Amino acid sequence: MRRLKRKYMNDFPILNRKINGKDLIYLDSAATSQKPVQVIDAVTDYYKNHNANVHRGVHTLGDESTELYEAARKRVASFIGAVTPSEIVFTNNATDSLNLVAQGWGLINLKKGDVVLTTVAEHNSNVLPWEYICERTGSGVEYMELTDEGLLDMDVFKSKLTDKVKVVVLSHASNVLGTILPVKQISELAKEKGALVVIDGSQAVPHIQVNVQSLGCDFYAFSGHKMLGPMGIGVLWGRRELLSNMIPIRFGGGMVLDVDKKTYELAEVPECFEGGTPDVAGAVGLAAAIDYLDDYGMENVRKHEIELTSYAIEKLRTVKGLWILGPHNPDVRTGLISFVIDGIHSHDVASILDSEGIAVRSGMHCAMNLHKNMQISSSTRASFYIYNTLEDIDKLLAGIEKAVGLLK
Amino acid sequence: MDDNLYREELMEVYKSTKNRGTLVSPSVEVLEKNPLCGDQIKLQFEISEDGIITDAKFDGSACAVSVISSAYLMDNLVGKSIEHAKKLTKEDLMGLIGINLTTSRVKCATLALEGLKNAIGKYENGKSNTENKNKNR
Ligand SMILES: Cc1ncc(COP(=O)(O)O)c(C=O)c1O
Question: Does the CB atom of residue A34 touch ligand 1 within 6 A?
């Protein structure tokens, strides 16, 4: 198993870098993952050998490019268990996907008095699109609190799930607490009330096996760059019948069949949502990332991260004054740990770790509501992926101890 | 310049209480926030009739860069005129601290400087309002 992991680690060229004279220890994969050479090569190969615009023109390269783009769509569809590839809309990132649902579905379906139900733990990208639509439609966002441990109390959810709730918007896994929400159970309850379920899967798809059909949700959004893929490509999955009744939000070339002065005929789903030249190289790179994850095995990704997370929780707990956010049970959380050290600002922890070559995130991680709710001004986050090792966590601990020594 | 922000002499400034705390009767105070990192510092100034800063203190929860730059700035301002304070630039402040900051931390260092500019604006606004009122009378 060790040797196998080494083989995978060697696939990430950036891990050979020195940072401030030390070996890079990359613990910021929740912000963006590093890319294996297989993904980098796929993107390069596309530009070297196949580059042309898609769905336009009839020349050979144009056909090749279109085929690669559509093959990538198929690859994504099978990876997350979509019914057909046409349920996959390529976007720029998760933020773009979430805005597409909020505007494309919300603007025509939400009315005055309707409620969008969410939690205080959401990323800004999952909240602001809805706050904007609610303001325009007269509906309102309602925020559920989480338990002290960072879990969603299902009784709270049931009590908040009134007839006014038209859509439930949640992240599958929290980018601060790591909490994995029981999406299947949530979807069943929402269905009974006739509410839609929109899931932000940015922190889930890279780390746990996701099957949108068995989850029972209606929309599912994620970014390619957090799952070994390139930056600039994102995905929105939606149920076919819902996508068919949504309005496009980006008008222009590539999303219409016919234009005749004042009228136009929209292209089919999903092209009607992909106005303008898409990030074909990004889609090709994402498909290569999925191949890579499939080869590694999503069960193995999960196993590896549970091992790292358990070890990290055990180690970090030994630091005096350090407080781990979110649940301590690794079975209900993903491989990221946010923590606060009494009297020390997260930026200082991150700066001192950086001087040791260790990259972590500090600040509020785009989750202002959550930090305000917990009454902390910021936190430090170490997030793990397939290329991290137990030794990385030992170095993290040593770095944290150095920070405490200097600043306390 | 030494790149090490966490070297001993700066850590001493960080932990020092010299310019930290609150003034009994400040002429002006501002609460400066950096929403990106959740930093919040309060700056207070005592200003004499002839426009000299006679005392300055800061307080709040902030990172070492914010704290150290606030401490240097406050220390440097006492005894200076507000005309001098108005002219202080980011470069002056960096020179005072004597460190090279990475781009992501420059914002933390300039928080206090922005606070200073806002405080002067607030002070002068308040003053011209009372002067105007006096004139109108
Ligand atoms: C939970 C969650 N949602 C949404 C996003 C936004 O992702 P992107 O910036 O790729 O659109 C992130 C990433 O920071 C995230 O962690």
Answer: no
